[in-house]
Amino acid sequence: MPEKHRNTFLQGLLSGDEKIIHTIYKKSLPAVIAFVKNNNGSYEDAEEIFQDALFQLTLRLKVRNFEIKSTFEGYLFTVCKNLWRKELNNRKKKVRNDGIIELVGEEVEHSSFILEQERWELFEEKIAQLSENCMQLLKEYFNKVPYDVIVSKFNYSSENVAFQRIFKCKKRLGELIKKDKRYQEL
Questions:
Q1: Global pTM?
Q2: Helices 106-127, 159-179: crossing angle, 10 deg rounding
Q3: Which pLDDT tens digit goes with each residue over 100-152?
Q4: Exposure of 186 by Cβ count < 10 A (0-12 exposed, 13-18 middle, 19+ buried)?
Q5: pLDDT per position as a tens digit, 4-40
């Protein structure tokens, strides 16, 4: 998608332009509904996540202007995916008791999301700067693929070799992240 369309969507979201927001819903909501429903959620969960993502993006635009390097739809989908995964993790951790009052304010939650999203974007940007081999290796590692499978897939001679290679790739990724000026802010 051309940069012009990304900016149009962002500005329309920021200004509350109903036509643009309707277009965003029409283009992006179906994919979010499918993702959430395929990952233990409902239609209502998907709508809530989608609305929260749009709110988060609007809030982030007001706080700090940022640039989307992919398509707007892709970026919005990633935000929704991250929000849904966070929600699933929170559901696992919560003890259900209607008598308990939530102490974390909505404002704090939105601020922490913005920070998490910026950290995630820095991470994705830096991982893309690694060699193809390191990117693939770390993808397997972060997806918790067992070392014996990694050894086989990458034709390493042993699990120790795979472990050392992953260690080097993680170290290089850490160095790239720490060199970025945004690291101290985040």
A1: 0.55
A2: 120
A3: 444 445 555 556 666 677 777 878 888 888 899 998 998 888 888 888 888 89
A4: middle
A5: 556 788 888 888 888 988 899 999 999 999 999 999 9
